[in-house]
Design brief:
about 55 residues; mainly alpha; 2 helices
């Protein structure tokens, strides 16, 4: 079996782009993009902590 890659960092730009897409539809691009960035960072740290806890 190959070693599983840790691509958890890719969740931050994913939420950033989702926030921008929602912002384009609601006419609040900057606000929604920043919200997407914050949510992405929060989820990144939560998943990083959870994975560290599961691996121990």
């Amino acid at each position: 079996m190959t070693k599983k890659k840790k691509n958890i960092i890719l969740i931050i730009p994913a939420f950033l782009i989702m926030g921008a897409a929602i912002g384009l539809q609601t006419k609040g691009v900057i606000k929604q993009t920043l919200i997407g960035l914050v949510v992405g960072v929060i989820i990144y740290f939560f998943l990083k902590y959870r994975n560290k806890k599961l691996n121990n």
